[in-house]
Amino acid sequence: MTLRIRVQGDLAHLSSADGAFDRAPCLTAVVEVRGGLLHGDPTGPAALPDADIDDVDAASAWLADVYGPETADAVIRGVHGATRIEPGDQTVIDAVLRLARLTWTRAWWPAGARVPAVDPVLLAAEIALAAHAVEHLLDDDLATERALADAAGIASALAALPPALAAEGERLLSALTALSEDYGVALDPAETAAADAAQVRQEWALAAGGARDASDGIEVASGSAAVRWGDVPAQTVDAEAEARWTLRQSAGVATLRVEVPAVDAPSSGRTLAARFGPAELGVDVALRRDGALFRGEAEVPASALFLPAGERLLWVRDPLLSPADADAPDSAADRERVLSVAAARILSPDASLAERAAGSSR
Length: 362
Description:
Layout: E1 2-8, E2 11-15, E3 29-33, E4 36-40, E5 50-53, H1 56-59, H2 63-67, H3 69-77, E6 81-84, H4 90-108, H5 120-133, H6 143-150, H7 154-159, H8 163-183, H9 190-209, E7 218-226, E8 242-250, E9 253-261, E10 272-276, E11 283-290, E12 293-300, E13 314-317, H10 332-345, H11 353-360
Antiparallel strand pairs: 1-2, 1-6, 2-5, 3-4, 4-5, 7-8, 8-9, 9-12, 10-11, 10-13, 11-12
Helix pairs in contact: 4-5, 5-6, 5-8
């Protein structure tokens, strides 16, 4: 295997491909390690992750595990160029690649009309086991504990598995239970997780019952806008749907209404924000879960009714993820690539249990 090495001071880049670390975020699976990042394209096969290192001294603790001792020595000595390498510990490499894909799934899974949502508790359980396997590499000393805490309701999640996956679920539970005991993290009983899920469903039902009538007033203008995946948490809004807006006028008052299709998953029970038009117009709308949609409305100045078509722009986001101004839209080709791979993954025997469980729900 050929590896390209570039070193500049305490910075280093290692890649099995010609390109630098410039993939679109939705096409980048990342593991934060001591002194840098290991990353790769989750939509394609990979024998090794690439690396971007900002602290060679810190990274020297794991370089040989992933890239072999000769490559580690070359990076530490600042050697440039392409070189044939013998990779390091294959068990570590496989665990890193698995953790990268699982964390990518948590951040970017494109749930929607074509791809069912993955269970976040099942996913967290698998992340906990993968993180534990490479804990000595990770920048976050608490990565395993955090994932175990997120997997606390695992019993309920496993109870929902189809019979074909039940045996695998039992093995996962056994491994997770042993790991949780080692770390002193308690796993909640199934009843607690089930009660939490029921509470979420009840809240959604109450929200749906309180939906407002959208028939009042005169519709002056309407439109739609794509939602950038990086601006909202995965499995919150439908990955393939667009946000829709309408400007209505009634009794001299102009109102903006925004609707975004939601994913039927616990992670979508949160508040989003929408901004309409140029920033100086100051039109911001809070979007709350309302049945199958995120909805919101706000009064707008009369000038909003006369905005040129090119300024009738809608930006939907989670303010905690994307507090700054909107960037360029996602590439349609990148989105389609991710959607196609995810749709195939749920049917693949090599996929994670969370992915295959999602596929069984179709």
